[in-house]
Amino acid sequence: MKLVIVVLEGVQALDVAAPMDVFTEANRFLPPHQQYEITLVGLQAGGVRCANGMQLHVGTGYLDHHEQPDLLLVAGGPNLPELHAYPAPFLAWLNAMAAGSRRYGSVCNGAFPLGHAGLLNGKEVTAHWHDVDRLIARFPRARVRPDKIFVRDGKLFTSAGVTAGVDLCLALVTEDWGHELALRIAKRLIVYIRRDGGQSQYSPYLAVGPKEETIVAKVLRHVTEHLREPLSIEQLADAVGVSRRTFSRSFAKDAAMTPSAFVEQVRIDFSRKLLEETDLPLKTVAFRCGFRNANHMRVVFAKRLDTTPRDYRERFHSVA
């Protein structure tokens, strides 16, 4: 099975390495005549500098690659959303390769070159959460799903940021060879077989440093220390020493969400961790994370992650 990964200058190294590792691991279990043949294709052959400074060797330029792939993937990179122009022959080549392939798609913001080639028009797609607003503005004919890890629309596959490329490629392997092979690969790579739900499961607020003194950091510390409590806006305002009015205005400006939505997200973050790492009953998880009961937690999961706590646990519980 022929696989082409398009690699452009400034590419995110993981957007290349993650798909390559998944398909290379698949080859360990496949007979030679069924293995994935991976080719890196760039604007030209030679060295490509990744966003992290690492050098990749791209063996073929697109003008010299005429063999039709079964799967075409465009790797993302931090600078791709800023690029407004690509060589017309390159965009024509992308169209031809996509048209003749069985499947095509992108990792992270590799969706932008596909968009410039007109390949996202009328399609349901996703990209890294940081870039979805620009994707919507740049390609208004695309139907962007901001909170999906990966999306399939016909033979087009798009995925969210960096490691979501693993989820995408495991789904492709599952489609090709079945769940059992994908599970073997997931175990070898020590990753989840599939992460349902959306990108909102990766909350940026749990990365707030313990010594930061922003209003968001203060609220986060208070919420995590009193997670089982109701946590009204008045309580949060008192915790940071300001009036309710000042608190609501300042918090919404800094966090880009309401205090109640923030608290709900933190509850989800911690319940997700308990579901992944423990076998605690759902009602116990709900109690520890401040949900009114297990049904309330289920409703919030359905709204925020498009899944249920039980299904989340089944799919995300640590792989033995």
Description:
The chain has helices at residues 13-29, 88-100, 111-116, 132-138, 164-177, 179-189, 215-225, 233-240, 244-255, 259-277, 282-288, 294-305, 309-316, and strands at residues 2-6, 37-42, 46-49, 55-58, 60-61, 71-74, 103-106, 124-125, 143-144, 150-153, 156-159. The chain has 320 residues and is α/β, with parallel strands linked by helices. Strands 5-2-1-6-7-11-10 form a 7-stranded mixed β-sheet. Helix 1 (13-29) packs across helix 6 (179-189), helix 5 (164-177) packs antiparallel against helix 6 and helix 11 (282-288) packs across helix 12.
- By CATH, the topology of the largest domain is Rossmann fold
What does the oligomeric state look like here?
single chain
Q: What is the number of strand segments? A: 11
Structural class: alpha/beta
Task: Tell me the strand percentage band.
Answer: 5-15%
The secondary-structure element order is EHEEEEEHEHEHEEEHHHHHHHHH
Q: Any idea what the shape is?
A: globular
Going across the major beta sheet, what is the strand order?
Answer: 5-2-1-6-7-11-10
By CATH reckoning, the class of the largest domain would read Alpha Beta
Low-confidence stretches: 200-211
> Fraction of residues in helices?
40-55%
The number of domains is: 2
How far apart are the termini?
30 Å
Tally of contiguous helical segments: 13
List keywords for this structure.
320 residues; alpha/beta; Rossmann fold; Arc Repressor Mutant, subunit A; 2 domains; 7-stranded mixed beta sheet; two-stranded antiparallel ribbon; 13 helices; 11 strands; globular
